Amino acid sequence: MNKPAFRFVGAIMSLFLALMACRSSTPTSPPASSSDLLQTLEAMTTPIQEQPIPTAEPTQMPSPLPPPVLSEATLSPTATLWVAGATSTRLPTAPVNTLVAPVGFVVYVTRPGDTLESLAGRFELRLDELTYQQPFSPQAYLPGGLQIAVPEERGALTQPDSLLPDSELVYSPSAAGFDVEAFVREAGGYLSTYNEDIDGERLSGAEIVQRTANELSVSPRLLLAVLEQRAGWVYGQPDDVDQVDYPIGFMVTGQIGLYDELRIAGTQLNLAYYGWKEGRYTLIKFPNGSALRLHPFMNAGTAGLHNLFAMLYPKSTWWQELSGTEGFLALYQRMFGDPWARAAAVEPLIPYDLVQPVLELPFPVGEYWSFTSGPHWAWNYGTPRGAVDFAPANAEARCEVSKQWATASAAGVVVRAGNHAVALDLDGDGLEQTGWALVYFHLADAGLVQQGTRVQVNEPLGHPSCEGGNATGSHVHLVRKYNGEWLPAEGLAPFVLSGYLVKGNGTNYQGDLVKGDLAISACPYGCKEALVKR
Known about the structure:
Blueprint (H helix, E strand, L loop, with lengths): L33 H10 L37 E4 L20 E5 L6 H7 L7 E2 L15 E5 L14 H4 L10 H8 L7 E4 L2 E4 H12 L3 H12 L9 H5 L12 H20 L5 E3 L5 E3 L6 H13 L5 H6 L4 H9 L2 H8 L21 E10 L7 E8 L13 E2 L4 E7 L2 E5 L10 E6 L12 E2 L4 E3 L13 E7 L2 E2 L9 E2 L2 E5 L6 E5 L2 E4 L9 E3 L1
Parallel strand pairs: 1-4
Antiparallel strand pairs: 1-3, 2-4, 5-6, 7-8, 9-10, 9-23, 10-17, 11-16, 12-13, 12-15, 13-14, 14-17, 17-18, 19-20, 20-21, 21-22
Helix pairs in contact: 4-5, 5-8, 6-11, 8-9
């Protein structure tokens, strides 16, 4: 599957508007067997969904390498105390670490990225079972350090320990200065000599790792460590031919080579990372169909790692492979040093009071474009619903490269341009992994703005097209990132373009642009009602 997965859904659009909508393959259910797993990986479209607590007996697992724990210095000294699952109990405001949980309850301390909705999903509670003194929107990020008394967890659960910081899964400021090519060259393994044809271009092993990290916004360190543990490519040589075709071991028909294998791994990391943050991905499944519920106390980075390793190892050995003395975490630290020390300098990735800068619609003032898709996957399946699509309103053939220009929604530096995408760094430091960034996709490579160009708002970036995947017509796909993390269109820092608030309805591609009493509904067929003028 190339970049965001698409499928044709439309035909000739009305009013000569260019058809556009990014389209995913038909979702399938989560895998319950090895064959189901392969089918799921082939589609790479396993739906995020609420999942029941498994009925298997609890699994006893050895203690992992100990990550740092939150200290009093990292918590708010005047945090409001909450009680979850006991609506008749309300506790007063008090200093941190003074909450005494009722019998049958334990204390959970909120971490950056938590929301009421995500906590309710992870603890399997209704929103009305979360009681608190300060009003918060269900989608709003909560301040770190708030204490909550939650029902004590029972059943088949993973360990609660946080194993990997969020900033080590996301391509975040933690890895902004990491030189993939230099690391691979110095390691001197098979990866340093590997090359592969990708979209008609011969790429080296290091370039493939870098491209995957850029596209999925997954840390290149994490991709390299997974590759080393699974195939020994970073420092060694493959043992057999299967390791050349399927170095990580997914062995999906038609998905052959390093690039496809890394994209599958990155997709599964993102699937659990963002699903966990939204409180919807709470269960990991093993190739034989057995399952474990993710412990609600872990962080999103750990959830992503658990999900990937459950796909790669049987339940009897996965925990040892992950956290044993010779397991993945030990390997990761030998390769890259202490991830928690790096995380301390950059986390939280998303501050709870984040505010979007002023952004304009991605096309010139005075032009009409069609709003063809509401919130949908930011990049590919597994990323949050953070992207919107616009198509020029003209008489060009539906997949002809448009003569119109997609333009900069804000001033910034073009830090990446190619493979039908432009990444625009808004804080001007030249790094896509830090601060605000915008990613444009489906731009024709011909006429694309050059990497390193400083642009002002409204300056041209490239021509809308169908390049980069199956699409219903020439268009531009626009999504936001902050500190490397894909942002959903709704919730914290809502997506606003030229004063239009992006609103979704929980279904990919559907939604509205709202400004005052005006609501413009997305229409993939170029409906007159979907026209927007800057």
